[in-house]
Amino acid sequence: MSIAVCPGSFDPVTKGHLDIITRGAKVFDKVIVAVLINHTKQPLFTTEERIDLLKQVTNHLPNVEVDAFNGLLVDYMKVNKANAIIKGLRAVSDFEYEMQMASINRLLDEEIETFFMMTNNQYSFLSSSIVKEIAKYQADVSSLVPPIVEEALQRKFAAK
After folding, report:
1. 90 is known as an active-site residue
2. How many domains does the chain have?
3. What family name appears in the similarity comment (predicted)?
4. What predicted TM-score, i.e. pTM, was given to this entire model?
């Protein structure tokens, strides 16, 4: 069985993320969407909220699971018997950083392969940071995130 991990902060999950996850699910037997717990960042959504949103927007994909991890990705992959990483690339600027990460992961575990997927052109500009900035001003983000995420963003910023 081919098991891939699609890691990220997903704060919040966007249509660009969902595009990569959906396409990855067509290639691999199982895809684990792994929410990175990064204690140095202050996310808008808690880890539990991000997991819940991801589960809701991927519930139509039977071979996709959602989980969270902290520490090294390669250690998480060993525990889950995964041998592939799926990363979306939006632009050339993403490639340099992701190439470094892929090289380090390969150095740490030569059995792990990283697969880069070019993001659909309609999402090439999209990031979670941009979505949060737009949503903070109550602007329309319906073309950028699934409806359930849009509602969660509205609730978050209404509470602030």
Report:
1. yes
2. 1
3. Belongs to the bacterial CoaD family.
4. 0.94
